[in-house]
Amino acid sequence: MSEILRVEGLKKRFPGVIAVDDLSFFLEKGEVLAILGENGAGKSTLTKMICGALKPEEGSIYLDGKKVTFNSARDAMNAGVAMVYQELSMAGSMTLAENIFISRQPVNRIGFVKTVELHENAQKYIDMFGINATPSTLVKRLPMGEQQLVEISKAVSMKPKVLILDEPTSSLAENNITRLFELIGRLKKEEYSFIYITHKLSEIFKIADRVMVMRDGKRIGIRNIEGVNEEDLITMMVGREIKDLYVGENKRGNVRKEYFSVRELSLTGKFKGVSFDLRKGEILGLSGLIGAGRTEVARTIAGLETEFTGEIALEGKKLKIKNPRDAMEAGIGYITEDRKNLGLFLDYAVSANLIAPSLKEFSKRGFIREDGIHEFSNAQVGRFNIVTPSIRQKMMNLSGGNQQKCLLAMWMSRDPAVLIFDEPTRGVDVGAKSEIYEKIREYVSGDHGAIVISSDLSELLGICDRIAVMYHGKVRGILKKEEASEETVMSYASGLSLNKRQAY
Length: 504
What we know:
33% helix, alpha/beta, 26% strand
């Protein structure tokens, strides 16, 4: 193979920090180079410089042997470098076809879009990625995982020489991840080259040829994938050993009596007849492919979907949940999968976010108690190991892992009887994952239970006592920890075990 991209001595500073420090590497044609590192290691800054979103202060970038200077992302795209960001950038009110070919729609001589041709072109990528939609579907109507596939298909449609993928599977279920990996394998044979950023270590060994580890803006090392294992990579990333990511220190009590139940819960067009119980001291996983109804069930329990039938009960008492306030007052908390758009107030300070679900507790006769907010926020920052220069720092300036820990702190501080974690480690590094798992264990060690929704099967298998698997809006099996494996969960999730006895 021959080089397609070379980076030499890139450096970028921000106030108070060197984000990327004298970093060099190369990428070959038809290669997947994975980049690993904790949040704040400099991965995003590095890739933004390569794709023209940021300008390096020092260093050079070579594409196909020629030195290049990109003044914008469009410059880079025109040269053959494209990037798919973890945070989606599509227009929800536009169709799938319009998003894929935005600013590149086929037009006639007088400038009108050729809709038929546009839809035919888009259909090729819809089929390629297995997207469950039509070219005329509005993107906002798609679940997050399908939106992620549209974002990737948009980049592939530009036929770039180098495609940078930032956490591309963070919202994808296992079947779509498999399809994406197969597609990358085919594109590699056509000499497409990839820079692949992920926090899911298991993916590295399935898709990458080499892996580069970053820490504190520096290159710690580059290894051929055959020469490393997960433990090696974790040690390189965090500078210390994390021996057991999922088990950790055993602070949990025994799983005890059932105290929360869902019976025949149905929401038209989303799910039907969903029933399960949650026990004190238990972590119950909720698995399924995209569109199975996992998040919709959680949103219904949390009062965000109101046109439902069925029964939700806590400690034997049927709950009347008509809105999120009803759910909160009943003792139910929900941590959304979409922290940036639905979970956090990015323009506000860390302290304002931390008190948001509990604002009443910090007011007296209509006046906010600043001293109480200060004391509480600093305590939560310490308790959850949130890295921030100040509780007055805007939330948008924190890394993804620290934003996620803020989101957990917001809801866990309320001490709800039931807490639902929707994709709790989406887009966070292995060090933050370890801390988040520990907090979930700590939470259920009291008089609580937790429901964890995750597209990461290894996560569910690692931390859950039981896993309820959904298929086409129904719970098709509830597997005990000793019965669950990737194969059994996927067989239920894909409808292959419908004739088997459910394991309760």
